[in-house]
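assembly run, all chains below
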Amino acid sequence: MLAAKDMGESMNDEQLQPHSAFRFHGSWQEFARIAFPNLLLTIVTLGIYRFWATTREREYLWGKTEFIDERLEWTGRGMELFIGFIMVFVLIGLPFIVIQLVSQGLIFQGVPVLAGLLTFAMFLSLFYLTGVAYFRALRYRLSRTYWRGIRGGSDDPGFQYGLSYNWKWIVGWLPIFLMVPWAMISLWNDRWNAMSFGPHRFSATAQWTPLMKRYLLFYLVPFLIFVGAVIFGISMAASGGAPAAMGGAGMAIGGILAIVAVLIFYIMLPLAALAFYSKYFRLAVGGLRLHTLEFAFRARSVDWVLFFLANMAIIICTLGIGYIFMPYRNWKFFVEHMEAYGEINIDELTQSQTVVEKHGEGLLDAFDVGAI
Amino acid sequence: MSTFFTAAHYDGQKAVKRAVEVEVMGPQFYVVENAWRSGPFAFADVAYVTKQGDADVYGLAGHDGWRLILSGPIPADLSAMLPAPRKYGGWVDRLGLGKAAIAFALTSAAAVAVVLFSPQWLAPLIPDSVDDSLGDALVGDFGGRFCHTPAGDAALQKLVASLDDAPQDLRVEVANIDMLNAVALPGGNVILFDGLLKQARSPDEVAGVLAHEIGHVRERHVMQALLRQMGLAVVLGGVDGNSGALVNNMLAMSYSRDAEAEADAYAMQALGSANISPVGTASFFDRLSQLDGSAGVVKDNAGITGYLSSHPLSASRKDAFEKSIVKGKNYKPALTPTEWTELKTMCAQDREAKSGLGFDFN
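ok done. output:
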């Protein structure tokens, strides 16, 4: 039996077991020796090398990640990602180019309604495929992740999930976007409930209601700022000190206030969004179980804010070159805040019997919605 | 005769880690832990998986999750039997990073060059039937926006015939759209927008623009541009969205500038042989340059702004057309005053022609 970390531990016990079940051993200097050649090769191949570049980065990041007592292993191949990309290009990209040409021709010929319908159908199928893509990317990543010679995966091809993705997002948006947290959590659960590692199925039971307070905060920020501005304006007018009455100085004050309002909007809104996402991710991971293991994600809103500020600083100070370190930063942030509780019976952990697809996450790559 | 090496091992069936000895027997080997023995396996089936710290990890074909983890320097006897470590992937490892980068760069440059230059030779090879059906599919009856009156059609026909030797391959139409523009499309389709006719002050001006568009058709620019765009989309398909689109647009734009200059040259020649004065076209571009602001640009600096726009600056085009005027030549107007009025008012007269763009749903 391997103990990940006992459930009932209090903060005081941290000294006894100071680290999480997940530990990251990488260094950015080592990663740079992968990232810079990757950048060079990606440029000279007009981008085609990026599939192999991604693979090398993942090999490094996975290999530097220790779970309990053994490193993870990424066994995906650049060729798989490349084949996935080619499949998407031929099966989806080319038909869509043709559809676009046809609908342009239809507009020219004066049947805009038909062209509109065609474009709408194209949009709908893209929406559907995006859902399928999210599912298949997670499945692909699990099937290529090994720990102690055992991998994960899923036998579900994700076509059903694509439909759930559509209707749940539509339900999320319909009541003036108020059900978005429900859609996010419910889809996370759907996705993970179809996945497995070794012989064990994941179980995802995250609740969406605890997320609503943070969501409403984010949702209401623009309204609160607007209401605040109106109240301020009314009180100014009531006290007889309307900016216009004060001449030049009043105009200046009005201008400064307007700038402050805009700044609040552009600072408060991202902060509220991060606070929401932080809570979402904690709830989502917290609802995840694998047989006798439970998971947690410990990053609080402050951690997320600092993480994003540091990322922005790195990218700006390096004039954009620092962008190539973002996969490293993201993975490190993810692993360092992951936590697992419970025990694993090594003898019970047998090989996964799920199918292994020979192509990578081409769909997700094509729609540019790659996660970590 | 057998040799032993120590290693860590996962059999891929269970997550149990074993401290094993590798028992080598010729081209085959066993993994042994005390009384537990597994094999024989062929060295030919062993594949390099990854490097983990100072350990090299090997897998076995057909055995999902099977791992042999050899720490530290591998003894020469064993290393001779095992596959070489993989760092970047096949080709790069074989050539080395520097040479591979140079080879890739040359291949990429060659691919881009082929895509950029081949349309000039490929476009004439595309059969006319393909060109025509593409044109028909795109244009059709233009949603009923083409204007027709017997006198206007005759005037237009006369204009086309004076500018081109084989007017029967061309389909020139006036569309009831209030835009200062004209386009050449596949299948010899040329569309003059009514806004252009209204703005023009003489038939010579329209003749210049029409000759320019016929130039695009005769030089096969439309098919070339289509082929080039498709080729670039494929070649740059691997580049991330934004930068790919930027490169694509810049390349396409520089080519469309060349095409515009070619079409202008064609137009000057066509006007010359039709005995139509290029003065009208020059003054038309002069008025356009007031609109796009290029008249104010100092001529020496015109290169920069001119490079960024797909059309050559109206001001420089005006100069070119002015220079093509032959002094003392006896030019005659492109149309008689009556013909010109009929053409200019064709869309106003034709009550059946629909107006506007295709985007309104009324």
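Chain A is about 60% helix and 10% strand.

Residues 6-17, 366-372 of chain A have pLDDT under 50 and may be disordered.

not gonna interpret more than that til we talk
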